[in-house]
Specification:
single chain, about 290 residues, alpha/beta, six-stranded parallel β-sheet, three-stranded parallel β-sheet, 10 helices, about 15% strand, globular
Length: about 290
């Protein structure tokens, strides 16, 4: 039966580590890291996520500000605010919470965030650096997944890693990070033929499709490591991941729970990236390499 990979405890460690880094930066005459989260409209999940980001930032000594804009905000108005934040030396990290209302093109908006302040790691310059294995900011959720695997001392070299989901935010970047660690990586998606047989090969499974319990427990190979990025609310109100947890746990050697797995790590890595942005600004320019 699998051991639980406790993201909540590890995220608290990372937040404490960032808090010590913030104190050291300020102590050495550097700036207090500043993060601005821009939220447009009233998506209820976004409201909860942004509150979590702010509370965690403040706990680590990061000055966090939320810019909440009305649902009717135009693309031009949002771009003007980003230009202002890009030029503000007290702001080291800028994050535009997704999804955006439909009148706003998210690609245009994400392209406008200064790459040096793009703590989400979504700007094409930062995606390019990630592809080349010299990431400036690793996107927060994939970064959190890697940190969890590292904390559990999972050796990835030569292992079969199967990523279920090909999103820009999780699936694609996590596949690149696994590849950087010398795993043999397969990315599966809605057109993959016989998904079950691909997942059955995996030493490491990362599920990021956003469909409740889609990855069945009997697809998990004995002893595999299972990382579940999904957070799905069932009509009953219960939160479940993308993996059928109870059955998968019987086969896995290590498995992340939902909630309390990858979720808390995402916010912790945002704080990590914000500290890196402030350090780089203080050192006189963005660094290419984080960790
Ligand atoms: N919405 C859901 N996940 C994310 C994320 O990682 N970053 C941003 N900016 N918005 C999100």
């Amino acid at each position: 039966m699998g051991e639980i990979l406790d993201g909540k405890a590890l995220a608290a460690e990372v937040r404490a580590e960032v808090g010590r880094g913030v104190a050291a930066l300020v102590e050495s005459g550097g700036p207090r890291p500043g993060l601005t989260v821009v939220r447009v409209g009233n998506d209820p999940a976004s409201e909860v996520y942004v509150r979590g980001k702010r509370t965690a930032s403040e706990g680590a000594g990061i000055a966090a500000v939320e810019r909440h804009l009305p649902e009717t905000t135009t693309e031009g108005e949002l771009l003007a605010i980003l230009d202002e934040l890009n030029a503000d030396p007290a702001v080291h990290g800028v994050l535009v919470q997704l999804p955006l209302p439909e009148q706003i093109r998210s690609t245009v908006v994400l392209d406008r965030v200064s790459p040096a302040k793009d703590v989400d790691g979504f700007h094409p310059d930062n995606v390019g650096l990630l592809v080349q294995g010299r990431a400036r900011f690793k996107p927060c959720t994939p970064h959190g997944v890697m940190r969890m695997l590292d904390a559990a001392k999972v050796d990835l070299a030569g292992k079969e890693a199967v990523v279920v989901g090909r999103s820009e935010i999780v699936g694609k970047p996590v596949a690149l990070l696994l590849l950087e660690r010398h795993a043999t990586v397969t990315i599966c998606h809605s057109r993959t033929r016989d998904l079950a047989s691909v997942v059955r090969r995996a030493d490491v499974v990362v599920a990021a499709v956003g469909r409740p319990e889609m990855v069945r427990g009997d697809w998990i190979r004995d002893g595999a490591v299972v990382v579940d990025v999904g957070i799905n609310r069932l009509p009953t109100g219960k939160l479940v991941g993308d993996v059928e947890f109870a059955a998968a746990k019987e086969r896995a050697s290590l498995i992340t729970p939902v909630p309390g797995g990858v979720g808390p790590m995402t916010i912790a890595m945002l704080l990590f990236n914000t500290l890196e942005a402030a350090r780089a600004a203080h050192a006189g320019g963005p660094s290419e390499k984080t960790r």
